[in-house]
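Page header: ASSEMBLY MODEL / four components / 478 residues total.
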Amino acid sequence: MAKVDSSLVADLPLFAGLSTADLDAILSEARSVRVAKNSPVFEQGEEAHSFFVLLHGHVRASKATPAGEQIIVRYVATGETFGVAKAIGLQRYPATATAVDDSVVLAWPSGAWPRLVEKFPALAANTLQTVGARLQESHTRVMEMSTEQVEKRIAHALLRLVKQSGRKVEHGIEIDFPISRQDIAQMTGTTLHTVSRTLSAWEGKGLVESSRQKIVVIEPHKLFMLAEENPEAGSSFKP
Amino acid sequence: MAKVDSSLVADLPLFAGLSTADLDAILSEARSVRVAKNSPVFEQGEEAHSFFVLLHGHVRASKATPAGEQIIVRYVATGETFGVAKAIGLQRYPATATAVDDSVVLAWPSGAWPRLVEKFPALAANTLQTVGARLQESHTRVMEMSTEQVEKRIAHALLRLVKQSGRKVEHGIEIDFPISRQDIAQMTGTTLHTVSRTLSAWEGKGLVESSRQKIVVIEPHKLFMLAEENPEAGSSFKP
DNA sequence: CCGGCGGGTTGCGCCAGCGCAAATTCAGGC
DNA sequence: GCCTGAATTTGCGCTGGCGCAACCCGCCGG
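Prediction written out in full:
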């Protein structure tokens, strides 16, 4: 099994407050696994055999409704923990995790979790913070879906992606993994048609540039203003 | 300070796996507080001074958008933990908690959390499960808002309320605390008008009976079928 | 170099549900 | 018993965004 250098992961939130020795002990139980682009790490409904840390690449967590429609729960960025189903009391994964780029994950058997937590309680505390942060994000999403129009929701989603996984390029900031209109639709609760129209309009205004599975935000600040602006703001008066 | 009998709370998920002695030690740090109907337990943005367990009554957790609109995050039922902001790494409460009925809460100072967790690691593990469960619920809500029409969302919300806080009455199951059309609208991302129309229609079909701040579900099963039914189901073919 | 296919774009018509407004009802307080 | 205000109901018109359908484009494999 490939050894993992503890210095690579020492700064991850999951391992906050642990000594190097502790970290080595924990890492000794992990395997490092390569996941090819578009391959699943695990699938919704499957026995939650492992939990993971993403070392390299990008992973999409998606959830299928009983009726068969899909939504995207989140994109996992490098260094984040995912698949912690057992830790939150689930026997099966509640979502599917798919690599959207060639990726590398660290995997621990779920069975190791209770033992690790007992020996290193900081793991539970750290995971609690992570899960708490996700809960906040999910609530934010519910708020946006309840109160904002589609264009703003898309703007917010894009800004979040840029913040989380933006890569500086020539003319702006590019989202650092392949993402389709359909994906954005599934993140914002709309259709790929509407996303396409919206991006086209923004492209016309010079806010973004996009092509297949690729989006570059040219004017993050203008996009931000669009996302935040008050729809009332004195736009309605007749000359 | 009023003493709390440990037998009253021994079965709560938060205290799973703790001995009676441990429980007494933990309870000795709590105060019991009465909160009058329509009074806040804490408010969004306020310093997270305490965390709570609801002993009696019902509490609504709501969140205001930057633009000033409100959504309802959830209703807290008896025995549930809430206000655990500090435990998930927040300095301030992310939402407002309001008693919707005369209620009684147990309150611990947030400062006690790290010490309690150190001494009783089960607290962290139990809270992790609770927060994880809420994350699942929130994801379910996102899925519903993304893929379901308003009527089904309202049906699902009602069924959840009935399950969580239903009280058997003469003709059906009543939601055991005052809840307005507006409240349901804020839970499902719609308007009070649409909720009103929907409930009126259901009342016409004998599924529910409702009046001011009161809803009785007469036919839970029919409501469930309505919530789950496939809109496609062979209704559209041309001869 | 070619063909096919997975994305992406765009025009068109429609409708669920919203916004507005007015009327009605009910629960308390006085 | 009356008054007030909050909660609810309901009609009406409008529109954001969806569904459909046709079409385009660029990448990849052969």
